[in-house]
Amino acid sequence: MPAAPTHLRSYPRFRPELKPAPFLPMSRREMEQLGWDTCDIILITGDAYIDHPSFGMALVGRLLEAQGFRVGIISQPDWQSAEPFRALGRPNLYFGVTAGNMDSMINRYTADRKPRSEDAYTPHGAPNKRPDRTLTVYAHRAREAFPGVPIVIGSIEASLRRIAHFDYWSDTVRRSVLLDSKADILLFGNAERALLELSHRLAEGESVKAIRDLRGTAFVAPSGWKPADDWREVDSTRVDTPGKVEPHPDPYEMKEKEPQACGTAQGNSQDAPQPVRIISREERLAQQAEVRARSVVRLPSFETVKEDEVAYAHASRVFHLESNPGNARAMVQAHGERDIWLNPPPIPLAMEEMDHVYDLPYARAPHPAYGDAKIPAWDMIRFSVNIMRGCFGGCTFCSITEHEGRIIQSRSEPSILREIELIRDKTKGFTGTISDLGGPTANMYRLGCKDPSIEQSCRRLSCVYPTICSNLNTDHGKLVQLYRRARAIKGVKKILVSSGLRYDLAVRSPEYVKELATHHVGGLLKIAPEHSEEGPLSKMMKPGMGSYYKFKELFDKYSKEAGKEQYLIPYFIAAHPGTTDEDMVNLAIWLKQNDFRLDQVQSFLPTPLAMATAMYHTRKNPLRKIARDSETVETPRTAKIRRFHKALLRYHDPNNWETLREGLRRIGRAELIGNGPQHLVPRSDTPAMVTRRVRGAETPPLKTLAKRFGQKKLRPGAAIQRKRTP
Q1: In angstroms, rounded to a whole number, what is the distance separating the alpha carbons of residues 118 and 108?
Q2: Secondary structure of residue 600 in the 3-state scheme
Q3: Cβ(638)–Cβ(603) under 8 Å?
Q4: Backbone phi, then psi, for 253, in 5-degree steps?
Q5: Average pLDDT, integer, range 89-104
Q6: Smallest Cα–Cα separation from 226: which of 213, 235, 208, 215?
Q7: What does the pLDDT read at residue 238?
Q8: Phi/psi at 23 (nearest 5 deg)?
Q9: Which of 307, 296, 331 is nearest to 317 (CA)?
Q10: Cα angle at 638 between 661 and 614, to 5 degrees?
């Protein structure tokens, strides 16, 4: 078990007299108004500065401010020269550089590699306010502006690119962003612990080059460097195939120590047997933890994984196996003559620490410099409350695992209720509705392993796939209680749940589904089956449709009992690794049989470091042991096939009919072309086929239905189930 971490509030304040600023300053004038001549730390971000805990730079900035550091923010600087990076002067300690709340390439480009028309984190949604590979560009400009100032990089772009990774936009394996950015240190994950210790140690005069022992950090080291001589290097092929897999310890096992073999240099067959000592579970686990704590796993080098796809898949598997903070080892990967060293992941925050982070004095508004400009991301979350972080689902296409981890970190109920009251009292435009009470997953609040010792030793990639772990606490009682107390707050008319719902967990608690359907759905509820077929679902680590049907049955039942007309909004992914043409055709047939018409759809987008991305790049399955003759994962890669798969999700759209007819003929499914109810696509684009009618009236589009139920917009991939005509 890792040593107990330093509590976030245990550090002495760097400047005891420092008081919270109305907003963290973005100009010299604001610094002067605060009486500052310099900033201790300057944060550079690719997002607009919105002083709210849902935005990374605000959360980090306020946390550092609470420690007594003067923090300034440079938001979306013009990167064409170094001058905008000098706006607040030279920082006393370091530049903290981030691309923003999203990886910049995902922010700027679609799954078809086309530029997006809107940037939700920019005033007026204006595009092109940040460069490609923002983190690298900003770090270079900050170094140019003030040579010698330490550069600390972080955020999700740093997390997802901390080692060699496949980059979808260049279609190549790129080296660690640490080398491209030339930063001094990288902070990955939710980095509050590393950030505070790093800042205080730098403030005490320690060199950033000497700080090599912080969990949740990565840095460049000379080839073969180790923290001490007694550290043991383990080749990754001993952790996973082709070597023997190291079994993780059973915390309940009481195993006798093996006696000394006869005939060795220490003894022979005439020697008396040595006494056997039985050690306790706690002692044995402590010994194993001590060995692991001084071990580093060497991954295949950048040069190897760039050229060898099997080695890349193997590295991806080992990387994810070493992700539990309770037993993860350090990892190292050679890049030429240098090593990228990754310390183990950060220890999750305790509930009291989560409360501290979210209870800081945020202004809960965009910086006044933006005036009345609309910022889409702010409009989306201004009346929402984040109640937890992390996700133990382990979906292979999702980046939450790589960034926030699998251990759920929850806020206390009083902290959450205080934030709702703050929204009621201080957030402009509040009319009584909390738009979302959730997090990365709506219903994982305060869920986790029943036994801390099992959690510390577990190396499963998911707590809920292929089945829900028997050691997982699935009791939704605390969440139900939170919902009831939240909606009882004076001035609050409605509490909605808009975060993604894990329905295979929800069916374990019918009381929760009843509470949700009766009080917390605004007509439409988002869920994510992602597919109907076992092939792609097994590569996503998602449950089968049986869980969906169970949840739908409960949801419909309790909606009816509440006298409400409510619909599920399922999301589906086209062209995910492991998806065949036949899988997508079967999904389209399922959609038609269940009378679903998707309004918008999404294609799989390979994000750096995700396991599904490793499948896409290597055609291997890192969910299992990797070998050159192991399972091949067929993956839709060409634009033509991806376009066909995407069109199948919108089989009803006349704009897709020609693509569908050509594709169905190509794969030998021409029997699905025709004008009957059993067909997917008509033979010709006749006007009669273009307009679909139910009971003599045209079916309203999804946007109309969304408006009817008070929803502003729906995420791409949304669908709604139409009622059938009797």
Answers
A1: 8
A2: coil
A3: no
A4: -75, 135
A5: 98
A6: 213
A7: 75
A8: -140, 150
A9: 331
A10: 130
111/132 Cα distance (integer angstroms): 15
Residue with tokens 């796809």: 309
pLDDT tens per residue across span 635-655 = 999 999 999 999 999 999 999
Residue with tokens 């918008």, as numbered in its chain: 600
Q: Which residues does 281 contact at the CB level (< 8 Å), separation at least 6? A: 251, 252, 253, 254, 453
Question: Could you tell me if 73 and 45 are in contact, meaning their C-beta atoms sit under 8 angstroms apart?
Answer: yes
Gap between the terminal Cα atoms of the chain: 61
Neighbours of 546 (CB within 10 A): 10
> What is the spatial distance between Cα 355 and Cα 5, in angstroms, rounded to a whole number?
17
Query: Looking at this protein, which amino acid is placed at residue 474?
Result: T
* Crossing angle of the two packed helices 639-649 and 581-593, in degrees rounded to 10: 10
pTM: 0.88
**Which two structure tokens, joined as six digits, stand for 56?**
């990374």
Burial of 518 (0-12, 13-18, 19+ CB in 10 A): middle
DSSP 501: B
pLDDT digits (tens, 9 = 90+) for 370-419: 999 999 999 999 999 999 999 999 999 999 988 999 999 999 999 999 99
Residue 118, both tokens: 């809107």
What is the length of the chain?
726
Distances (CA, A) of 561 to 253, 524, 623, 723: 49, 16, 42, 18
**Residue that the structure tokens 């939240």 belong to:** 486
Distance (Å, rounded) from C-alpha 394 to C-alpha 539?
Answer: 11
Could you give the count of Cα atoms lying within 13 Å of 462 in the half-sphere of its Cβ? 22
Could you report the per-residue pLDDT of 375-386, keeping only the tens digit for each?
Answer: 999 999 999 999
Contacting residues for 490 by C-beta, under 8 A, at least 6 apart: none
Phi, psi of 376, rounded to the nearest 5 degrees: -50, -40
> Can you read off the two tokens belonging to residue 99?
């691309």
- Tokens read off for 642: 């991806």
Task: Let me know: does 399 contact 321? Beta carbons within 8 Å.
Answer: no
Exposed e or buried b per residue across 385-404, where buried means at least 16 C-beta atoms within 10 angstroms of its C-beta? bbbbbbbbbbbbbbbbbbbb
Q: Long-range CB contacts (< 8 A, 24+ apart) of 201-206?
A: 202/93, 202/94, 202/150, 203/14, 203/40, 203/69, 203/93
* Residue 309 contacts residue 626 (beta carbons within 8 Å): no
pLDDT at residue 33 greater than cutoff 70: yes
Angle at 56 between CA 176 and CA 349, to 5 degrees: 90
255 pLDDT band (50/70/90 cuts)?
Answer: very low
- Which tokens sit at 610? 């995700």
- 418-431 per-residue burial string, b: 16 or more CB within 10 A, e: under 16: ebbeebbeeeeeee
Tokens of 454: 């099992």
Separation CA 564–CA 494 (nearest Å): 15
Per-residue pLDDT tens for 565-596? Answer: 999 989 999 999 999 999 999 999 999 999 89
Q: Which of 405, 404, 402, 406 is nearest to 392 (CA)?
A: 406
Q: Of 546, 479, 548, 541, which is closest to residue 516 (Cα–Cα)?
A: 479
- Cα(104)–Cα(97) distance, integer angstroms: 13
Looking at residue 130, the DSSP 8-state letter turns out to be S
Residue 284, amino acid: R
Token output for 360: 């800081």
Q: What is the distance, to the nearest Å, from the Cα of residue 537 to the centroid of all Cα atoms in its chain?
A: 19
Q: How many CB atoms lie within 10 A of CB 414?
A: 11
Q: How many CA atoms lie within 13 A of 465 on its CB side?
A: 21
Torsions phi, psi for 538 (to 5 deg): -65, -30
pLDDT of residue 213: 96
